[in-house]
Amino acid sequence: MEFSAPLASFIKPLQNICSIAGGNSPDDITQNVILMVKDGYLSIRATDYRIELAYKVPVSVAEEGQILVLASKLRETLSKLQANAIVTLKCTEGSDQDFASDLTVSTGSTMFRIRTRAADDFPDFENANEETEQVISIQQGRLRRIIESTIFCVSQEEFREYLRGMRLEADGSQLTVFTSDGHRMAMVETSLESPVTEFFGVTLIRPCAAELYKILENTADPVQLSFTKSNITTTCNGYKLTSKLLLCNFPNVRGVLPREIKNVIPVNRTELRSEISKVAVLSSKRINGVNLVFADGFLNLRSENSEHEVATSQMTINYQGSPVDITLNASYVNEVLGAMQSEEVKFNFSQPLINAMITPADESAASEMHTRYIISRVVV
Fold first, then answer.
1. How much is the pTM?
2. Coil, helix or strand for 148?
3. Cα three-residue angle 111-32-165, rounded to 5 degrees
4. How crowded is residue 359: how many other Cβ atoms within 10 Å of its Cβ?
5. Are the C-beta atoms of 320 and 306 separated by less than 8 Å?
6. Which CATH number applies to 134-254?
7. Domain ranges of the chain
8. Do domains 2-117 and 257-376 have the same CATH topology?
């Protein structure tokens, strides 16, 4: 195998793909990335058994072939070269009987020789050839924004396996995306490029959503997501991503949405983030709670810890109505505010006061996306 190409044409995809590689032990074959040169193209592929990511790029081919290279070593080696360099990768006869060949990476006066393995035993993705059950199409930029707006709410707790993913539900021309960790929830509604004929729901594992975010571009070009019984596959921008789905039952999170809003309070997003960050310095480390009292044109913020240290602050808001007193986790609120783009947001409250719903102030019925965040109150 031998080919030459500008490093800039494949270094970023290679770094993304190498980050996928990784098995349960140093000897696991999936610690490697497979390089295949055929028909004028270089194909790069890696897997961790849950996800497989591949990329295809045209190169100048001297000899076709395929090899395995330790992903971490290849990524580190190429990262030391200038991005505008023309690099040549060539396999030569191995210097060790346990290795198929050596891979020589050269550009100018610089040369690296890396051990490789034979590619014959590299695993194909399990169930990748299952029959497709549903295909949905959505603008790349919009899906990228949805993932960015919701992924931080995915549960990190292993015992909440059913919440360790991103729920997609398609019904007609509407797509609804949910994430939740049991204490907060993100919900985004948007339209599909083409309606589905019947209700369809799947849950992406968090690593799949994260990798999908990386390969999408901020354009109006559509991307198609194809689903089988247990996998998702998509091809876009030179990448092919295949991933297992989370096959747990996702809870009915729609039940936490307020049925009747009693108070709607507009607040400046940037100013509120700043005030919460200041007051949270003395909050209890266990619950990280900040008490918010909305009333008479002001928002009063207060925190207190187990040593009875107190922080308070006040900001002006455009609200005249019955007081609303609620304690929320400061980190949760600031993560939500950080994910939103609207300069003004709305705090929506129902009775009884069990949570806060935060929405962008600039969304209308005609908006491309409708975003809602629910944060449960902290009981102190």
1. 0.92
2. helix
3. 135
4. 18
5. no
6. 3.10.150.10
7. 2-117, 134-254, 257-376
8. yes
Sheet containing strand 289-295, strands side by side: 310-316, 298-304, 289-295, 324-329
The string of DSSP letters for 29-68 reads: GGGEEEEEEETTEEEEEEE-SSEEEEEEEE-EEEE-EEEE
Q: Give me the phi and psi of 355, to 5 degrees please.
A: -160, 175
pLDDT along the chain (380 residues), means of 10: 96 95 79 96 95 96 95 95 95 62 93 92 80 94 97 91 94 96 95 92 96 96 95 96 93 87 96 97 93 96 95 96 96 97 96 95 90 93
* Cα maximum dimension of the chain: 80
Q: How many CB atoms lie within 10 A of CB 238?
A: 13
Give the CA distances from residue 345 to residues 113, 265, 277, 321, 340, in Å, rounded to whole numbers and listed in that order: 56, 8, 17, 17, 8
Residue 370 identity? H
Tokens of 56: 């295809």
Q: Report the C-alpha gap between 108 and 182 in whole angstroms.
A: 55
Per DSSP, the three-state class of 81 is coil
In this structure, the dihedral spanned by the alpha carbons of residues 172, 174, 175 and 179, taken in order and rounded to 10 degrees, is -120
Q: How far apart are CA 44 and CA 36, in angstroms?
A: 7
Q: Phi, psi at residue 349, to the nearest 5°?
A: -130, 145
Cα 138 to Cα 152: distance, rounded to the nearest angstrom:
21
The whole-angstrom separation of Cα 266 and Cα 318 is 6
The dotted CATH code for 2-117 is 3.10.150.10
The hierarchical CATH code for the domain 257-376 is 3.10.150.10
Which tokens in the block code for residue 190? 């948007």
Q: What are phi and psi of 371, to 5 degrees?
A: -115, 135
Q: In which element (H, E) is residue 112 found? A: strand 110-117
What is the rounded distance in angstroms from the CA atom of residue 179 to the CA atom of residue 203? 10
